[in-house]
Input
Amino acid sequence: MEHIKLLDKSRNYEVMDLWLRTTTKDNSFVEPDFWQTHYDLIKKQYINGNDIFAYMEDDKILAFVCVSDDNRIAGLFVDPAYQNIGIGKKLIDFLKSEYSLLHIEIYAKNRKALSFSTKSGFLIDGAKRHPYNNEVMYTMIWRE
Output
């Protein structure tokens, strides 16, 4: 059975494993070793301090989204084997039912994520360079 739930921090290892597999695949324009090098930083800044909502099937994490206290989506990650079947949309729809305002930053070169975000109602409201790899990122916003 599938469902979305707030994930217990004891499952952070599984979350980080899924994050690494998904990030290296979906952001192939970034040097592959960048993600390994910044693994601990990502875990500290984005995983440990945020609420993690997971899309589960039979207790297996198929996808997750991190949301900070200021309504920033720190990332939405769907297992590559389960992409393009509506799981990401279900997670975004869930967040829209819980929050009236959401922010997200997306690499400009990640056309798939940009397309998904705009189809989900997010609008670009700015751009900046990532502080560690200098890639351009769009800041996007969704309001109820």
About this structure: Residues 54 and 107 are 22 Å apart (CA to CA). The mean pLDDT is 85.
